Amino acid sequence: MRGSVLAYPVANLAHLAGLVLLLGGIGLLDLRLLGALRALPLSAVVRYMVPAAAGGLFLLIVSGIAMFAADARALAVHDGFRLKLLLILAGILNAGLVHVFWKHRLARPEPGGQVPSGLRIQAAVSLALWCWIAVEGRMIAYG
Fold first, then answer.
1. Is residue 75 predicted with pLDDT exceeding 90?
2. How far apart are CA 38 and CA 64, in angstroms?
3. Which of 10, 132, 3 is nearest to 67 (CA)?
4. Within 10 Å of residue 120's Cβ, how many Cβ atoms?
5. What band does 103 get if pLDDT is binned at 50, 70 and 90?
6. How confident is the model at residue 137 (pLDDT cuts 50, 70, 90)?
7. Which single residue of 25, 57, 109, 129 could bond 42 by disulfide (Cβ 3.0 to 4.6 Å)?
8. How close are the terminal C-alpha atoms of the chain, in Å?
9. Mean pLDDT across the stretch 92-117?
10. What is the mean pLDDT of residues 122-134?
């Protein structure tokens, strides 16, 4: 990363693209689960946004590892970076729990469009976590 003039900026741009895909995909799904955007069929949101979010997460992880390599020693002891990693783990765990417990409901939503309260809570947690992770990532640059 330090041997190239372009490597870090490209990794940073890839990280930003991954963030847009993740927050766009999971954010749209979470908002739909919370009752917004009711005109969008839940099954279609799941079908298109979950793969976009997963691709964004993959891009974030790959580019994040590359950027970490540029300054690993300083980042490893940075409290904000360690918090970000814990929050990422929590976000991935929450997404996994949604997949395990609610996959059948997301694949075939009820005709009335009712979303169970447990799923709404997990959607709110998801939205809050991923936004907090994005803010925490930006704050690393300033602290």
1. yes
2. 34
3. 10
4. 15
5. confident
6. very high
7. 109
8. 21
9. 83
10. 97
Per-residue pLDDT band at 112 (split at 50, 70, 90):
low
Of 109, 118, 124, nearest in space to 45 by CA: 109
The full length of the chain comes to 143
Residue pair 80/139 in contact by the 8 Å Cβ criterion: yes
Tokens found for residue 65: 């590892």
Tokens 């729990």 correspond to what residue? Answer: 97
Greatest alpha-carbon span in the chain: 57
Question: What helix, strand, coil percent values describe the chain, rounded to 5?
Answer: 80, 0, 20
Is the pLDDT at 17 greater than 90, yes or no? Answer: yes
Burial 31-59 (b: 16+ CB within 10 A, else e): bbbbeeeeeeebeebbeebbebbeebbeb
DSSP states of 9-77: HHHHHHHHHHHHHHHHHHHHHHHHHTT--TTS-HHHHHHHHHHHHHHHHHHHHHHHHHHHHHTHHHHHT
Encoded tokens for 138: 């930006």
Structure tokens at 20: 């847009």
